[in-house]
Amino acid sequence: MIEKTSQLKKIFEEKLKNIKSVQDIEQLKVEFLGKKGSLQELMQDLRAVPNEKKKEFGQAINNFKQAIEKSIEEKQKELKKLEWKIKIESTPSYDESLLIQKDFGSLHPITIIQREVESIFESMGFTIENYSEIVDDYHCFEALNIPPYHPARDMQDTYYLSTGQLLKTHTSAAQNYIMRKYGAPLRAIFPGRCFRNESIDACHENTFFQMEGIMIDENISISNLIYFMKTMLSEVFGRPVEVRLRPGFFPFVEPGFELDIKCLICGGEGCPSCKDSGWLELCPCGMIHPKVLEMGGIDTEKYTGFAFGLGLTRLAMMKYGIKDIRTLNSGNLKALSQFV
Ligand code: DAH
Q1: Which pick of 35, 226, 244, 273 has the fewest CB atoms within 10 Å?
Q2: pTM for the structure as a whole
Q3: pLDDT digits (tens, 9 = 90+) for 134-180
Q4: Whole-angstrom Cα distance, residue 119 to residue 186?
């Protein structure tokens, strides 16, 4: 019987070597571990073994089973990775070498996404606001519950101007201005260009786009936040999107969250785009901190609100499969004119 086991082992290893696809491995799994598989056969044989030998043989079969399971699992992982690699490499995103055949201009991918998100929020009753790119310390930090010397300032490396003003590091800088301008109840989004002193690489830029949104009214809760985000993202991606919230810290919201969406490429199974987690981090958000509402002149006895800071640059990269953030600011018309 030991001999039969080691023969089967050899056959298994031989077959494993020739496996080329996830389907092949499923077949091999059934062949060895299935109800009518080789291991079941061995178990049947075990019945005929004298009692004093049963333990030894039983142990050998068990070891064999565990070894098979481990090898199959490893092979499955390896094949899945390979399949994703092939899928991603063969997915057309844009072609830098393509000649421009049109003799008219085209919109920048971020403009396309921005307009799309704007019209979705507009249809849900949000107004669209513009805000300056040069702001003061009060609006960018203090009015957001980030006092001087607060460690949260280290999260954003700011460009200061000689006037003492600064380039806005996030669209949240407009929150106070908009609360003061409209009062409550209020629904507004404010897209804008942001600047941070970052070293530039494929994932980081010193100039990028965000879209902030706030909604303030009586009885606003986290479920309103989830509803609006889910609706908007499903519209942007043209199919239902699943979202989840994880705790996240931002001084201007309490509680604060990171909103993730289920990976649109693998559907949550895990792939290189979502680093095998099945989820993609997309948008920080939270319930507006009462101090921030107060500084915005909002009556906190009556009103609550949510805020979110959508990364438009990130969203455009996800939607269009742009792998290098630098493409977006490159001015490379061959690349940039291909998005519709
Ligand atoms: N302003 C934050 C940043 O750029 C993002 C952010 C976080 C905006 C939470 C929000 C929020 O509105 O609720 O890092």
Answers
A1: 35
A2: 0.73
A3: 999 999 999 999 988 887 676 668 999 999 899 999 999 999 999 99
A4: 17
Q: How far is the CA of 153 from the centre of ligand 1 (A)?
A: 13
Q: In 10 A of CB 287, how many CB atoms?
A: 20
CA of residue 318 to ligand 1 center, whole Å: 19
CA of 187 to the centre of ligand 1 (A): 17
Could you tell me the two tokens for 321? Answer: 């499969």
Q: Which pLDDT score is estimated for 221?
A: 96
Whose Cα sits closest to atom 9 in ligand 1? 285
Distance 250 CA to ligand 1 centre (A): 7
User: Distance between CA atoms of 82 and 279, rounded to whole angstroms?
Assistant: 20
Q: In ligand 1, which atom is closest to the CA atom of 309?
A: 8
Q: Calculate the CA 216 to chain-centre distance.
A: 26
Residue 85's pLDDT is: 79
* C-alpha distances out from residue 292 to 146, 154, 173, 319, Å: 10, 20, 11, 33
Length of the chain in terms of residues written: 340
Interval 266-313: pLDDT, tens = 888 888 778 888 898 889 999 999 999 999 999 999 999 999 999 999
308 Cα to the center of ligand 1, angstroms: 6
Q: What residues contact 61, with CB distance under 8 A and at least 6 apart?
A: 5, 39, 42, 43, 46
Q: Kindly write down the DSSP assignment for every residue of 262-329, as one continuous string.
A: E-TTTTTS--GGGTTSSEEEEEEEEEEPHHHHHHTT--TTT-EEEEEEEEHHHHHHHHHT---GGGGG
- The pLDDT of residue 99: 62
Taking 50 as the pLDDT cut, the residues of the chain under it are none
Nearest CA to ligand 1 atom 5: 309
Secondary structure element (H or E) that encloses residue 210, with its range = strand 207-217
Q: Using a 6 Å cutoff on CB, does residue 284 contact ligand 1?
A: yes
DSSP assigned state of 100: P
